[in-house]
Structure formats: C-alpha cells, structure tokens
Specification:
Order of helices and strands: EEEEEEEE
Low-confidence stretches: none
Largest sheet: 3 strands, antiparallel
Number of strands: 8
Distance between the termini: 19 Å
Strand order of the largest sheet: 2-1-8
Strand content: over 45%
Shape: globular
Number of helices: 0
Structural class: mainly beta
Radius of gyration: 14 Å
Length: 73
C-alpha cells in the first residue's frame, strides 16, 4: 500500500534545541509546501509546480503519513 507523507518533525537548533514540524499546506521559504518526498533519509519539499523548495537533513523524530482509503463493495 502506498502512503503519502503529510508532515515530519525534526530537531532544529538555534540557541537551544527545539522540535520543528514541516507539513503539506504549510509555508516554508515563502512558498506553500505541496508535497514531501523522502529518499535515503533526506526529506525534499516541493511546491505545487513540482519545483524543489529545499532539502532537509536534520534528525527526524516523527513522520505522519496518509494512506489511501480502500473502498469495499
């Protein structure tokens, strides 16, 4: 069953560590995130034109997925 990433949380650090959530529909870098793809531990954020916004390589603490619903007859 194929699944879609809807959000993921990373440990970010400024003056002290904190949890930051990247999610579909949320703005990042002045663009709305339309899709998130993970490949070899790197999370890639894309806009609705399928243009890469950024790649995230921070320690991940959680990922939320959406699974397609199956319709039974």
């Amino acid at each position: 069953m194929e699944r879609t990433i809807i959000s993921f949380e990373v440990i970010a650090e400024a003056t002290k560590p904190f949890i930051y959530t990247f999610e579909v529909g949320k703005e990042f870098g002045g663009q709305d995130v339309d899709d998130i793809i993970e490949h070899d531990g790197v999370f890639k954020l894309f806009n609705r034109k399928d243009e890469l916004i950024t790649e995230i390589q921070l320690p991940v603490v959680g990922v939320k997925y959406e699974y397609p619903s199956t319709k039974l007859n």
